[in-house]
Amino acid sequence: MRVLGVNALFHDPSATLVIDGTVVAAAEEERFSRRKHGKRPVPFSAWELPELSMRWCLEQAGLQPKDLDAVAYSFDPSLARPAHEMGLDDPWDHLRLTYAERAPQFLAAALPGLDPEKVVFVPHHVAHAASGALASPHASSSVLVLDGRGEHASHLAGRYSGGRLETLAGQQLPHSLGLLYESLTEHLGFLRSSDEYKVMALASYGKPRFLEELRETIHATDDGGFQAPVPDWSRWVEPRVDDGTWGGPHADLACSVQARLEEVLVDLASWLHEQTGDTALTMAGGTALNCVANSRIWRETPFEDVWVQPAAGDAGTSLGAALQVAADRGSEPRPIAGADLGRAWSDDELAQWLTTAKVPFTTPDDLPEQVAEVLAGNGVVAWFDGRSEFGPRALGHRSLLAHPGLEENLERINDVKGREQFRPVAPMVLADRAEEIFTDGPIPSPYMLFVHSVRPEWRDRIPAAVHVDGTARIQTVDPQRQPRLGATIAAFAGRTGLPVVINTSLNTAGRPMVDDPRDALELFGSAPVDLLVLGPHLVRRSQLFDAHEAAGAAVTDDAAVAVA
């Protein structure tokens, strides 16, 4: 059974290929097109398909469109209602629905040879739910989905067993915790449906002084749903102009809304546990990228295990749609082993990229030791290794690494990336050392989707990795799965006593994460990075510029001889 999953309608377009229940490939369109989030989530862009990622998925498996048994599209227009009937102010939403209805024809045009009859519409929140439960290591689990919107709802609570979903609750639009948070994002001067993670970071700098008022109107209900009318934010603070300043009443508003979001999510998850009694909760939907809230759910609800799908936003619906259709047609879904589901190149191919670019490089046997030496000497390392990540988190395949023991490195890394200084960077820690440094969150935590408290005795030892509130969004590294990275962190620990390095995504502000070797070389050439790791190869900034200076001198000498 060969199923191609497609997410296209709103934002973060993506494609996933599932063969006989196994996820073979998954990628976001932005990594190919180099357009952040692939496109803006407006009705006029709803026709755009993730053509590059769809074709790559098929190429990865050596398939042609005619070889597919089904294409799973993560939206079902038959379930949608006119925007005004759902209380949404979106006069062009009918255009979005028209494009969705015609998706089979659009897909057949983009993938010549595909029979449009093979296109299956999967309800948006079912696709989210399947991406959590069917990709997880749990044979059965409760599942909680919250996002901005689907066809007519913003929430699904249910239970998966044997590949089948039992829906227990849902929340009809216009009430939406995702749209509430998006509206706040816009009010705080950030880009809506893009920069919500900035609000989460800013919240740590404020006080929840508007929380009591928010509790009056935003709350869970007895039937497993909630009420979340979008307030007039200006009653508390005027809209923020993104002029580089931050804090004050805007941070207080962010803190208040973040706190209320966490409380409502805990209530929703607790209600779900009362219905199912399950030990495991799986989560997806854009709200599940809120790692602070995820940790409160883990701490404060009866669920023993909380598993969040690493591409929890809309990109992950291509994964869930494909897995659900595969399950419906008799293929047993297999859990994903990791988020590394994207593109990769062989060692020889990477060497050829460097040779073609006339970039001097080495291929040392002791690469982890050499990288650790640069990190211990306070160098910044661009790390490119293996298959790229599916989802928004850099997880040691396309990462920017630095020393956590120097407080100034937080400001330094944010300057390298060209982003706001209130943004934290994440610690990457060896899995077997994590519990001695971090607490109040699940360990292992391989997908950087939970926030942990940093133990007091470690806060002064890794200050660059500690957020203003004493927490950190950690990634635990298993050397069995990532041997080169694990060996590098171990070598760094041998030099510094710190089994932790700073990890942030390998990109600069406003650009998608680096995906192919050309992206990596462009970043290395334009940002103050000391070392580029490209698989088993090393490129040192000093050697690169020495080579360029030598080449320039040779050209000058040749010109002088020619004139003489």
TrEMBL record:
CDD domains: ASKHA_NBD_TobZ_N. This is Carbamoyltransferase. Residues 372-541 form the Carbamoyltransferase C-terminal domain. InterPro entries: ATPase_NBD (IPR043129), Carbam_trans_C (IPR031730), Carbam_trans_C_sf (IPR038152), Carbtransf_dom (IPR003696), DHBP_synth_RibB-like_a/b_dom (IPR017945), NodU/CmcH_Carbamoyltrnsfr (IPR051338). It holds the Pfam family Carbam_trans_C. Residues 2-72, 116-323 form the Carbamoyltransferase domain. Belongs to the NodU/CmcH family.
